[in-house]
Write the structure tokens for this entry.
Amino acid sequence: MDRSRTEYWKGHYDRLADRGSPWLDYSNARVQAQTHALTLEAAGPLVGKSCLDFGCGRGQLAACVSSLGASPVTGVDFVDTMLQENAVKVPAVHWLAGGVEALPAPERFDIVFLIEVLQYLPFRETLREIWRHVSPGGRIVAVVPHKDCPIVQRAASRFGGYYLPLTVGELAGWAGTEPGVAWWAARGFAFREDQTLAPYEVTPWCREPVWSSPPNRLQFVAVRDGGGESGAP
């Protein structure tokens, strides 16, 4: 990530951290809760798995993954105050300040979470670097705003060129050219008209859009070859 982009988003999240909101990228706690639940579903079994939560924020997902038996668990973010708070609340997780460069070069993880991160970064370069840290048979689980959604387009206009949501086609382009991708798929999270039970309606897994109207978020899973297991969530 270039220096100007890093400084822009660090300032943005420093301000959000100071406000004390437990959710940083969503409109309310229910949206965050369902997103985390769907993320855990896409991750598959966690007991004994090494996990990285890249862009961990307040650390709720990393803490949940750890409590479900994943080990070791590492959380990475560039907001120092949140990491300090996380370390006090959840000492079982290893908290690291910085970006991809903060990861030890030889270290690999069974599962890497990229939740609300890729819109802030050059996504191809970021995925390429993160992919180097995925163990054989391991997977990336990402959630990113969908570029074709009008709600997301309004957010992108507020943040200008600093906010870069993605399409299924862009994710497919990376997965189709990156060495070692054994399986990949995406699905959409679309806001329900009636949100009494849950904010999102979830589409089937796909490699091409299967929705009549563009969802708000895309969830993307890519599985690395070499694990001897089916890649499907």
Observations:
- Residues 112 and 222 are 10 Å apart (CA to CA).
- Helices lie at 3-19, 29-43, 60-67, 80-89, 123-131, 150-159, 168-177.
